[in-house]
Write a structure and sequence with these properties.
Blueprint (H helix, E strand, L loop, with lengths): L1 E6 L8 E11 L6 E10 L8 E9 L5 E9 L6 E11 L6 E10 L2
Antiparallel strand pairs: 1-2, 2-3, 3-4, 4-5, 5-6, 6-7
Subcellular location: Secreted, Extracellular space, Apoplast
Pfam families: Dirigent
InterPro entries: Allene_oxi_cyc_Dirigent (IPR044859), Dirigent (IPR004265)
Amino acid sequence: MIDNPLTLGPKLSSKLVGRAQGFYASASQSEIGLLMAMNFAFIEGKYNGSTITVLGRNPVFNKVREMPVIGGSGLFRFARGYAEARTNWFSANTGDAIVEYNVYVMHY
């Protein structure tokens, strides 16, 4: 289960704009590949109360991973698109990571 800060930049001191909430599970026998189900739940500005939902495969050691946007709520109702994930920092000792998401979304 995840409930991580969603910030404008990679530093924890960056402005908090929401939470990345959901879960991931190991989904590959040959590499570290995760099944990700995640909501970007916004708490700031005009997107406050809206969400974007991402569901897909995340091969975590690939430089760039693409996952589909399958929906949303609030201002992102009927959202479709994709999210690109890039690992900014990773600690093998703790399993902690900072991941940058660029999300491209169409909505009504």
